[in-house]
Amino acid sequence: MNLWWTEQQTPGLRLGLRCEEIIERRRSAYQEIAVYRTAEYGRLLALDDMVMTTEADEFVYHEMLVHPALSTVTSARTVLIVGGGDGGCVREVCRYPAVERVVLAELDGEVIEVCRRHLPTIAGSFVDPRVEIRVGDGVAYLADVPAETFDVILVDAPDPLGPAAGLFSEAFYADAARVLAPGGVLAAQTECPFLHADLIRRVQRVLRAQFPVVGLYWAVVPTYPGAMWTFSLATKEHTDLTRARRLPVGSSRYWTQEVQAGAFALPTFLRGLVEESK
Ligand code: SPD
Fold this sequence. Notes:
The protein is of the alpha/beta class and 278 residues long. Helices cover 29% and strands 33% of the residues. Helix 6 packs parallel to helix 7. The model has no long low-confidence stretch (mean pLDDT 95).
């Protein structure tokens, strides 16, 4: 098969991947969901023709969204993941034996089904008895959660378009701050600084209005637009975000305590973005 799958990442930027098989392509109530087998990156999940994850580079993104937050809270028991229907964040959170409850609030239940069927290395932890799946709008779910319910909130949002735009809003982060327990930590994916500098500035500013400690860190995710990817971390307590605890069980492929410390070392232009957000 000589099919080239492309993502129009911005009006002036495309990602092209040679695709060896269309494993599944269907339309849900919200979007087109597709899984392809690509020549370079293994299986790829696309929503509305945008890469959500691939077997080859997912570990960078999921480990870096989850472990800096989980390794900062002394003993997280309750974790909320907003978005993340592929299950990659669930898998990483389930590595922590102290975690008793993991709630996944995902808009589209068909994404979960498709990933369970075709991406078992990513979606394999949905069977963990600690995991509760809530299918529906994450913003609405959060608005109904009682105060101080979760020790950790992870925002595994798609790109800030359409229904996902609410996951980058001021109201959403205000609710997240209300729902986090004292000492709680929030981590959110905040896109690429080359393509979404305004979004990074805005989220950093909004978080700083709600949390006493806010940081920005980064990693490289080759299939995401611009490849250099940022994450924003916010906590209710004065904590050194660069000091991580060890992974309690198993091993990681990307994240280490040293990588976490290094990820907060910002190149000058990224430090500038953070400064401009103040
Ligand atoms: N452009 C890709 C941004 C996607 C971020 N979230 C992806 C979900 C992976 N669990």
